Here is the input.
Amino acid sequence: MPNYITAVNQMIRSAVLKVPGICMYGQNINNGTFISGLTKNLAAPADGVILNVSNSENTLCGMGFGMMLSGVSAIYFVKQLDFMLLGLDHFVNTYNFIRCYYDLNKLGRFSIIMLVCDQGRQGPQSSCNSYGDFCSIARIPCYTVTNDQDTPRILESQLTAPGFRMMALSSRLCRTEFLQLQTVLAAPDCSVFQYTEGRDVTIACFNFALPEGYRLVRELAAAGLQASLFSVNYVPNIDWAPVVRNAGVTRRLVVIDDSKSVHLAGHGLVEAAVRAVPGCRHHVVARGANVDFGMCQDNLPIDFAALVSRVQQWC
Amino acid sequence: MNDSIQTILAREVLQLRAWQHQVNESLKAKALGLAVHMAFGHEAIAVAVSHMLEDSDRLVLSHRNIAYNLARAGDLRPLYDEYKGLPSGLGGGRMGTMNLANPARGVAYTSSILGNNFCVACGLALGFKLKHQAGLVTVLTGDGAMEEGTFYESLDIAQSKGLRVLFIVENNQCAMSSTIPERRCAIKIDRLCQAFGVSYDLLTGNLVFDYAARLQELRRRIMETSVPVCIEVDLLNLYRHAGATPGFPGDPMIIDLKNGLVVREDKYDPVYVLKQHLPADEYAALEQPLLAQARAWSA
Here is the structure.
């Protein structure tokens, strides 16, 4: 199996060929490192085009929305999530204008596909790793691509879906083996994916925490416990029902979120679960408030032994 | 330019002024719940731009969009109803004054965020280019909004990608309540454009006939060469740029329909410029019915 970045790159290259007339653009999109391999060997479909552009992130975000208005679909490939802070005005304001005035079905589709700098040691200004905050503030859908099940589904459905969305890859995962999983459930809007079914505990992973969640599943299995594993994307007005239903069976919920944000989307899931399943045991694995934003490893530190022990005690 | 077109242009400038007076009288009477960025002094360029546009063209505006939206709509009622928050308004009563667009009449996007519209205009133009569609995208801004970095970036992208974009900088020397010298150094827009290889032009004098003819020429040039153009328009906003409506109690600035359509007797008032340019009887024949209509509305 190829590594993560190679596998995702292959899927992107395949998916964009099915979107005729698409404009793909980004800084150094077709030379150098090809955005750390994200756009390597990218080819344009019929009537499509690939454009190398300047370092003008705010303007490039606005340009994508302008192309939407002209009826052209576009993908802006971005080196790191932090750069998208410069485009936030357009996600919040420009897109809000467009969806107030226009029928999105009649416009071009706009997607931003980016890397998140979460591999550590990039310095304080390459530290933003929670694109869920963008989803929240702009009320737009944002998806992580993490495995061989969610990636093709997200790409196939979202690149041609009306409107605007963001998709993110993890730099930390780039050279790791691409996760191969089974799909138990895939929400039609790609908000929730379920990969395993188990009666003992429900595990919900946010941001790029799926590998940690998958490891927890295996460690619990070694301890004789069966877990249901979910990954959750950031979709406004998300339907928590698939996860909450499962928590209603297991009555135990572990949320893992490697985001550095203070407010976590997983808290909303916990609230929904506790309301729907009174007495549901729950635990959130997150970074805490004193995140080191400096030169540091970016992995979410997890004491798996302690976590397994906690679940065992619940059981 | 033949006489009939001149008459049309002149009437439209006067009509625009009359409509702005009507809105202003409503503001003074506190009949509208919203702030409106009035554009007294912008009528010549607004009418000239509107006449330049062809069906395939798009107009991208800013918060000070009233003159352009009136010119494109050709009617005060849709805007006025919008300002009142009525469903019959141009934006269904939901858009307010600063985000008011009119896609059916080519006003594709209007931004209340300074400078946000430049790159949207570039995206529109790039889309037209990729689809091999003829169409000019004209984007309006002011001397304040052009201070935003995206102006610089958008000039770059428009030139780099050969986009048919017309940037119009309405230089009224003021942003919020600060004049240019109060807030920054002078920016030589012509030299900035030269640095990017963008063509530059200056419109001054506020005579709508001159502006209309020049814009037609520039449109032809852009469509032939795909080299973007930036026009600087020398004008003044004949109004308190930001703050209370002139004529409010205690406000020394008076703009009142009782005083007629002219607000200022110099080259910065396009209506006054027309009055000086046209034969007196011709001007009067155009002005009188519009003034009467405006006064009847406001009564």
Summary: The two ends of chain A are 36 Å apart (CA to CA). Residues 77 and 113 of chain A are 5 Å apart (CA to CA). DSSP finds nine helices and twelve strands in chain A. Chain A touches chain B at residues 21, 23, 47, 49, 51, 53-54, 56, 58-72, 74, 89-90, 93-94, 97-98, 100-102, 108 (CB under 8 Å).
